[in-house]
Amino acid sequence: xxxxxxxxxxQIEFDGRQYTVTAFxxxxxxxxxxxxxxxxxxxxxxxxxxxxxxAEQCLQDEKGQLEQQVAxxxxxxxxxxxxxxxxxxxxAQELAERYLKVKRALVAATAxxxxxxxxxxxxxxxxxxxxxxLDQAQQVTIxxxxxxxxxxxxxYRQLVQQSSSIKAEQSTAAQPPTLATGSLSKxxxxxxxxxxxxxxxxxxxxxxxxxxxxxxxxxxxxxxSELLQLTDLRTSxxxxxxxxxxxxxxxLNYLKDHPRQEQAVRRGKHAANEGDxxxxxxxxxxxxxxxxxxxxxxxxxxxxxxxxxxxxxRYDKELAKRIAERMPFYLTDQNVVDLQTIQGGxxxxxxxxxDVNTFRFNIIVSQQGExxxxxxxxxxxxxxxxxxxxxxxLPYRYGDGKENSNQIDGIVINERGIFVLEIKxxxxxxxxxxRDGAAVAQKDGKQKVYKDCYxxxxxxxxxxxxxxxxxxxxxxxxxxxxxxYLKRQLHVLYVSTAPHAQLVTTGADIDPNHRFVSLDELPxxxxxxxxxxxxxxxxxxxxxxxxxxxxxKQFKYKCxxxxxDRRAELAWQQYVIMREMLQMNLDDLVxxxxxxxxxxxxxxxxxxxxxxxxxKPRHHKR
Length: 622
Fold this sequence. Notes:
Elements: E1 11-14, E2 17-20, H1 21-48, H2 55-78, E3 82-85, E4 88-91, H3 92-117, H4 124-137, H5 149-169, H6 186-219, E5 231-235, H7 237-257, H8 259-265, H9 279-303, H10 317-326, H11 333-346, H12 349-380, E6 387-397, E7 403-414, E8 417-424, E9 430-433, E10 439-443, E11 446-450, H13 458-474, H14 477-480, H15 483-488, E12 490-496, E13 502-503, E14 516-518, H16 522-527, H17 535-547, E15 555-559, H18 564-583, H19 586-593, H20 597-603, E16 607-608, E17 613-614
Parallel strand pairs: 8-12, 9-13, 12-14
Antiparallel strand pairs: 1-2, 3-4, 5-15, 6-7, 7-8, 9-10, 10-11, 16-17
Helix pairs in contact: 1-3, 1-4, 1-5, 2-3, 3-5, 5-6, 6-10, 6-11, 6-18, 6-19, 6-20, 7-18, 9-11, 9-18
């Protein structure tokens, strides 16, 4: 049976007087309020005291008197039986133990104030005012007001919140005592969690401020919209090859100096291949993706840092809102602008992917062309009697009649004739030229037909090369006299540098008049020609072709930006800080102070969410 079910209310003796439970509760609450007022006076005294030392003894006397009063209240509460609070039976002993927990926290705060204020003093008139207030706090007035037990519990919770607020403001105060939460109710667990949150907020704010400062420094003057964008170039193939080689090497040198960084971006899939011509681009592509995702997530987190508090449980929601007001944003306004500027360049995933694929194609084609030309040079370098010209750009008019130029991979000139080389470095198992004049490569059972951007096959390209060389020869007065003979000695050779490709020369779909020549066959094919050019004619032909050489045509290309290693380093520094910001969680600091609290909340069916107890459901991945 609860105490209030007795026919005669129990009486409590305290300080030489008899009290009903109602009157005793009123006295308890009055004393609690006076304790709170005293704490406020002590805080004010600490701020104002500057010159004297007399306050220390007054504070010690007051603490002793309050401890004596609390001890008497505790003794009286232990004599009570259970009471009913909101339909739940609770013993007065349990109520007293809860009060003592709050009292211990208050005593700890008071002790801290004593240590801080030691050596300080309070002006004489302020001492007198404080003493008067302490005297009044010892007086008990019963005005007949009736308080219910739920009201007593409400005031107890007020004391808990007030105690938590005091400790949160004492950033250098001792760590709050860890409570044995295993037997606490949900409300007590929530109270404990919010108490820890408030005591951790200052440290959390400091860490956010530190990272925010670091990000600001790294974004200052480095927030170019093209930070991680590939650059558009319009240049000649030769200039492009030079720029591509230089910038690729800069990035590769950077990756060699940062192997762990490259491994992290590759996400541990496999080790980097030192000879991979796409190694730099693959790193760039993967890192741009991760940078974009990280920046997007951080901008979103910055926007929602306080919005999620709307999901706080109704219990103590006002306290959750106050905590939300103290939660720092992760970014400054300028940080947001800078990151959005960068995002403006790399935010469109499809556009970035298109640029990367275009650049990938440029790298492969450029590298294949360079490798093919190098292999042909090596195959012909032993012939000392030949004049060999590479990367020619001769004037030529195509079908539209406009002045243009024709790019020729190479020309060999010797006594056997004039040999125009169209070099192809296709990766194939079988290779041939079909009756439409297009190159066909077969690999892994699949065929691929190669044509240029104008839908022309390799034979069409060879015919244009033949006409361009003939035009160059006719432009020279001394060579023109021999043009009829030279036309019969002018040949177009389609050279395959694929080391293991089978070159097919017969078949229903193969043009027998045009065929590929392998690197091994090339010297023999040239040597087997029937021409008989004199040395002076060879020199004149080489000079005539060289004199017609003109500036290369310019084309659109994609490439790494200037100083890609510097840009990669700047972006990485920003990326690391953003990752730290995303990983920051107030609950990690809470767990450091009380490792059991989060597990206790979870066992009670509650969930902590970076500073508040949430009712928001978990998001499960399907």
